[in-house]
């Protein structure tokens, strides 16, 4: 069963599905509007035990789960293309490369919350699943020839086992331009302004960037206006919509400005991971050497197996292992650490010896 979903990213708040596309050999293509039909459990009953073919499954599975659609087995054509070593893994590029078809373009970034949906948009959406099963079969044949079928099976199972991603910690830190803010006070003001925007966007069901762009948040913090009038002099805030909201934005800035020192955010997010790699040479030269050896070995291994190095093993897991190697530094202990860090068995089999060697470098 080929499955796809269209969202309204950049237009609506959140990542809900606004169209679901299904195609099954012998049944044709079906397009479902989940706005008036928010519970598709009756569809789930019909297709739940079928292998679902999706492209970039991580993007669609969360919004499908919200409307009652959760697969038992999947085949991710985007991930399969990565494992197969294809140079480009976008749906259009893979279809053209393996099947010789050119998919219609032009509506991927459309506002799929639009109602009624234009006929040409529906045709575009239907084409996304038209050849997905054929693409799955072509990729499966390549993986079989390369001896990577088991790799793909483990990867697909890991996607399903992971479930929906947890909420981001300190999501305001992802504001574009945040690195231009130098003081903790400025970070506190940005956080307060970001939270005010997020609350308003949620209430209006509008993408936060359409309420107020990131650049406006950062520029307001840097300007630090002391009156509403001064805030209205800044670009973007001069517009009619934001003139009406000037009290909201100025109040948020004031709250951040008045926070006690103890409540201001730190410059970097607290966590249990290693420091930024550019600081390793100064803080722990031996760890820097270990990482250098590990990265070189993984790059050579990835090239030999024609698979992207980031799919060979999570870069974050590599950094953690090289910063604080498990004890004792033997292959069995390294394998256990990899397993605990979420690595799949095929990844462990390929990398354990290489990483054991790197962990013992000084």
Automatic annotation (TrEMBL):
SMART domains: 35EXOc, HRDC. Residues 183-263 form the HRDC domain. It holds the Pfam family DNA_pol_A_exoN. One of its GO terms (molecular function) is nucleic acid binding. It comes from the Bacteria. One of its GO terms (biological process) is nucleobase-containing compound metabolic process. InterPro entries: 3'-5'_exonuclease_dom, Exo_C, HRDC-like_sf, HRDC_dom, HRDC_dom_sf, RNase_D-like, RNaseH-like_sf, RNaseH_sf. PANTHER family: RIBONUCLEASE D (PTHR47649). This is Ribonuclease D. It comes from Geodermatophilus ruber. The lineage of its organism: Bacteria, Bacillati, Actinomycetota, Actinomycetes, Geodermatophilales.
């Amino acid at each position: 069963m080929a499955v796809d979903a269209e969202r309204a990213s950049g237009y609506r708040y959140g990542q809900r599905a606004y169209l679901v596309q299904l195609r099954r050999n012998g049944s044709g293509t079906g397009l479902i509007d989940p706005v008036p039909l928010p519970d598709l459990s009756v569809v789930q009953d019909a297709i739940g035990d079928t292998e679902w073919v999706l492209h970039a499954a991580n993007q669609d599975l969360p919004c499908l789960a919200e409307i009652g659609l959760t697969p038992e087995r999947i085949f991710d054509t985007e991930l399969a293309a990565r494992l197969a070593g294809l140079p480009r893994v976008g749906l259009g590029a893979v279809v053209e490369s393996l099947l010789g078809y050119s998919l219609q373009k032009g509506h991927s970034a459309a506002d799929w919350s639009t109602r009624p949906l234009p006929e040409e948009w529906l045709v575009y959406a239907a084409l996304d699943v038209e050849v997905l099963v054929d693409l799955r079969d072509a990729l499966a044949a390549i993986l079989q020839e390369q001896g990577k079928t088991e790799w793909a099976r483990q990867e697909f199972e890991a996607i399903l086992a992971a479930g929906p991603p947890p909420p981001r910690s300190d999501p305001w830190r992802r504001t574009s331009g945040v690195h231009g803010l130098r003081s903790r006070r400025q970070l506190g003001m940005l956080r307060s302004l970001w939270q005010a925007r997020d609350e308003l966007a949620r209430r209006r069901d509008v993408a936060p960037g359409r309420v107020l762009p990131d650049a406006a948040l950062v520029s307001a913090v840097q300007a630090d206006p002391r009156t509403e009038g001064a805030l209205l002099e800044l670009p973007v805030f001069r517009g009619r919509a934001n003139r009406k909201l000037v009290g909201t934005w100025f109040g948020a800035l004031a709250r951040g400005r008045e926070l006690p020192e103890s409540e201001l955010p730190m410059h970097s997010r607290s966590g249990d991971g290693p420091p930024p790699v550019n600081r390793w040479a100064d803080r722990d030269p031996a760890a820097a050497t270990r990482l250098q050896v590990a990265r070189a070995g993984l790059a050579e291994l990835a090239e030999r197996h024609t698979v992207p190095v980031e799919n060979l093993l999570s870069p974050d897991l590599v950094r953690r292992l090289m910063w604080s190697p498990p004890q004792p530094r033997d292959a069995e202990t390294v394998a256990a650490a990899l397993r605990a860090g979420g690595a799949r068995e095929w990844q462990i089999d390929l990398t354990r010896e290489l990483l054991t060697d790197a962990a013992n470098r000084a």
